[in-house]
Amino acid sequence: MTTAIRILHTTRYRYSRPVKFGAHRLLLRPRDGHDLRLLSSAIAISPEPRLSWHFDTFGNSVANAEFSEASNVLEFRSELLIRRFSHDDFIASPKRGRSAYPFAYPEEDLIDLAPFISLENPEEGEAIDAWLAAVIGPGPDEVLAFLRLLSETVNDKLTYIRRERSGTQSAATTLKKGTGSCRDFAFLFMEAARRSGFATRFVTGYLNDVVDDGHVHSGGGATHAWAEVYLPGEGWVEFDPTNRIIGSPNLIRVAVTRTPRQAIPISGTYDPRPGAVFLGMDVEVKTSIEPYDPGSSA
Predict the structure, then answer these.
(1) In this model, does residue 31 exceed pLDDT 90?
(2) What DSSP string runs through 70-101?
(3) Distance from first CA to last CA of the chain, Å, rounded?
């Protein structure tokens, strides 16, 4: 008998009177991989829409919801049962070789990685360079040590704040404010790593904060965001500067994108009727560990 992680994610939009809803785009279903197995997935939406599925340019599963009924409440409820496979801690593994930094990707990889190396906001390059020079300097001469220091520096130098409002601050804005959400921390880390020659992706998903090591993670109870960096021979490696996590099975990946705005879990429009007022949005994510028998059907 092994264990699985159950995730219940509810998002509710409230209005003072019924409104009509436009199409909504949902990024709520993870994809199977060698490190993650999706055992079951269910989505309940009220009012009931017409639902269709497709893959985006990154290979993420995307649901399209189209509504015909007006309502004063729009609710999305996603329930996932997943298994994250245990893996060796590659940081401490004696099998892991040291890779020198600075480094260059092989030419063939560069063709595919180029969009993930370019800054999302090129005009902020100088501000990022100045910050890197001030807080890291030349940095370690080993790839993983450099990236670990970068992630820990974001965590050490900035103050985490929880922000339900949608949107992600630019890297320069986060540096100027000195505060940010998990999305902001992830994006700052991405832009700084890109400026240092690495290919990075934005990841949206969940944080399994039901752990027994006594450590308190930030970002539980809601959707979570972190980054991935492509390392030759090791693939896309997870870095969560909000929690100083690297390659952890507590990070439940749902979708990966080039930019934060492409990774919004739920996005859409509504057509307000006269007198209708948006009252607010409620988001709740619960994770739990439960026994799972691989010999039975999920």
Answers:
(1) no
(2) -EEEEEEEEEEEEEEPP---TTT-TTPPP-BS
(3) 13
